[in-house]
Amino acid sequence: MNEKRRTLLKAVGGSTALAALAGCISTGGDGGDGSDGGDGSDGGTTGSARLWTDLSDAEDEALTGYIDQYESETGNTINKEAPGGELDQQLETAIPAGDGPDSWIWAHDWVGRFAVREDPPFLYDASDDVDVSLDSYTQAAREAAQFNDGLYGLPFASETAALYYNADMVDEPPETLEEMVAVMEEHHDPENGQYGLSFPGVDPYLASGFIQAYGGDLFDEGTLEVGVDSDECKQGMDALETLYKYMPADPGYESQIVAFSDGLAPFAINGPWELGNLSGEVENLGVTTLPTVDGNHPRSYSGIQLFYFSSMLADADQSTVDAATGLAEWYTTNEEIIQTNATEQGFIPVLTDVVDNGDLSSEVQAFARQVDHGVPMPSHPGMNSVWTPVTEALERVFNDEQDSDAALDQAASEIREAL
């Protein structure tokens, strides 16, 4: 996923394993074989489907090749398009106008948000159209694709933020925040364009691990309680403010990532969607889990990437339904694709056969360990009210415009008012 997609998360809602909200369903077939998948066709008619994507260059290039392969094997046509703007905003316009895509790719945070939309509906329940067994995926992944017994997509990867490091500048990856600070102190010299850390730290998705390190939750989707102003989250902000001292002055995504990619910072905190790009920029790139804070593992938000099934499929020809769901089945159950994505893109597999094969790279294993330390992003529609107030609070703290306790108090008040 690219920087625009991650930045969007602050405004549109999080992701979660929908354990409390989703029912487990059984799809109608025997399931894919985990290697070549199903083509989703009825054995005779081929169809075409529109797929909207908003990916990094490396991800987009890889997906284009896979779609070519799918089209060659099935005879179906997939018209992959960029949405022409921020994806959620384009969907909000296109679907009511009857001009939306048949499928799109995004983290599963939108399942709860869109599944409750009725006028018009935004998602299509493909329970009766998908033949792959949901047991092919990890429990968190299969739950992420469901809401109230409906199947609204198929999962292909998980993600979270972890710690990148330049091994030419860092002898040993830090295990604790104190160790990380010691290394950052050695390199931080902003007057000469050198920094301790590359981190878009005002993005709540990327900053969540530290804010929630002491056990606080920004939002509890089970109780619908706002925890932004809890003592635990305020304590976590102290760790986040420590990191703020070592970042470039502009907290924007592009300004931050370039410091690390250009060798001007020993560390970066970012997601696996940057692995393919950074591997080509930093010769001795390493990835490890986020450093502990007072012995606590940062509880970073994690999400599941899905092929979503759009409500446009409800009135589409069966051949279009087969093309869209067939691509999702073929892609998400193809072991070679999932393994290659893990190696080249840093995607954390959720296909159980790949998860269990022991062939994941050290970088992907690091992201997977951080997923284990983290928490699923809430997908409850109420989470949509959390991102903007928290982002604005973090920006005020970063720019020394407001004390962190007061900033979190204000954000919490704004969230509760909006819920």
Structure commentary:
Helix 1 (3-12) crosses helix 15 (387-398) and helix 15 (387-398) packs antiparallel against helix 16. It is built from 16 helices and 14 strands. Residues 1-43 have low confidence and may be disordered. The strands form four sheets. Strands 1, 2, 3, 6, 13 and 14 form a six-stranded mixed β-sheet that branches. A four-stranded mixed β-sheet has the order 8-11-7-12. Strands 4-5 form a two-stranded antiparallel ribbon. It has two domains: 3-159 and 302-375, D-Maltodextrin-Binding Protein, domain 2 (3-Layer(aba) Sandwich); 162-299 and 386-418, Periplasmic binding protein-like II (D-Maltodextrin-Binding Protein, domain 2). The two termini are 29 Å apart. It is globular and about 65 Å long. With 419 residues, the chain is an alpha/beta fold.
Summarize the entry for a quick read.
The protein is of the alpha/beta class.
Q: Which properties best describe this structure?
A:
D-Maltodextrin-Binding Protein, domain 2; 16 helices; 6-stranded mixed sheet; transport; alpha/beta; 14 strands; 4-stranded mixed sheet; 419 residues; 2 domains
